[in-house]
Amino acid sequence: MSVRELLAVPMGAAGGIDVQSGVARRAGLLWCTRQRAARGADTAVVLVHPSSNFMGHYALAPLAERGVDAIGMTTRYLGNESTLLLENCVLDIAAVIRQLRGEGYRRVVLVGNSGGGGLAALYQNQAERPTIRSAPCGAGPDLTQADLPPADGVVMLMAHPGRALLLAQKMDPAIRDENDPFARDAALDMFNPDNGPPYAPGFVERYRAAQAARNERITDWALARLAELKARTGGRVDDLPFVVHGTMADPRNLDLSLDPSDRKASTHWGPPEVANLIPASIGHYTSLRSWLSQWSQRLSNGHGPERLRGVRVPVHVIYGTADDGCYPSHARQLYEGVAHERRTLTAIEGGRHYLADQPELNARCCGLLADWARAL
To answer: Do 261 and 321 touch, CB atoms closer than 8 A?
Structure first.
């Protein structure tokens, strides 16, 4: 029988105050859970997401039951993506892998689940050949000077290509005023029944262009605001918070003919018209620098397919055919981003995003993952 234990990992310093909790900053620890296999395992599987709490991840126990030690890790931005810099998350993954290497594991496999896909790709890319000297606009660490032990394999599990790419496809282009989510352009409103669903190809083309334009406008505004902030404060204040309305308006959420799969017309947060506005869905609270690092399609370093192109270790892309947020095209983009032949693409037929209430599919998924990891 597997055993779960708490794992405390020293957190590397990144400079500045980007974690609200003084207790967390002073403790300097990343908290993880490790589910140990019944017999001593020489393979560790690390599941990661930029801000979600993976300490209770659904795959931990099934993986341990199949002979690998499974670690559900957190980053310093646990439950708080508002000031998140992906580049600092890279340091946090490095700290966990470094500790596991020091404990003697022969193989360490990094699993980017959901929003962790782009981050895992970024980590391995920089661990193998570091090139990033800071986060966009000068914030964050110099990864070329960091100790980034590479993983032996990378898994994209129910993952999308990256936070910036995902948000650019989900931003509501009908919003005319960034301060008012109800000041809307009816001609670009996917929730306007006059437009669909189903949505005509011309509407989708205009919609996608308007989404990209909105992402670009916010990036331009954030850059200008940072320059103004530097001028006003002499550099004493280097960031400001802001709100982004309308972050869950992908036509694929309602029109199942777009990117066809076995999914239902919904989102992880419920009906799209609700998820689009409620505070708990993605990307609503951010800062200028965090926007540039994780949400700007132009400047973010977290584009999964692009990062996977430089990864040399084996890569396994696992996706669910009924996932309502990470689509078959996402899996193909990640798979096709890998430039070598040691790549695998696996569909979990009928699998939903969290494999919730699907114990048989969860067992199958974890069995495939564990077997692949041990065979590296």
So the answer is: yes
B/e letters for 1-37, b = 16+ CB within 10 Å, e = fewer, are ebebeebebebbebeeebbeeeebeeeeebbbbbbbb
Where is average pLDDT lowest: 26-40, 161-175, 326-340?
26-40
Mean pLDDT of 69-83: 95
Share of the chain above pLDDT 70, in %: 96
User: What is the number of helices (H) and of strands (E) in the chain?
Assistant: 11, 12
Beta bridge partners of 48: 112
Helix (H, G, I), strand (E, B) or coil at 207: helix
Q: Which domains does the chain have, with CATH numbers?
A: 3-162+301-374 (3.40.50.1820), 165-295 (no CATH)
In the prediction, which pLDDT does 140 show? 81
Token code pair at residue 149 = 């032990």
The encoded tokens of residue 256 equal 């199942």
Contact between 86 and 141 under an 8 Å Cβ cutoff? The reply is: no
Owner of token pair 């980590």: 123
d(C-alpha 83, C-alpha 12), whole Å: 17
Which run of H or E residues covers position 48? strand 43-48
Look up the pTM and report it.
0.96
Enumerate the β-bridge partners of residue 44. Answer: 69, 108
In tens, the pLDDT along 284-309 reads: 999 999 999 999 999 999 999 999 99
**How large is the angle between the packed helices 201-233 and 163-170, nearest 10 degrees?**
120
The span from the CA of 183 to the CA of 177, in Å, is: 6
Q: Report the pLDDT averaged over residues 200-208.
A: 98
The residue type at 71: I
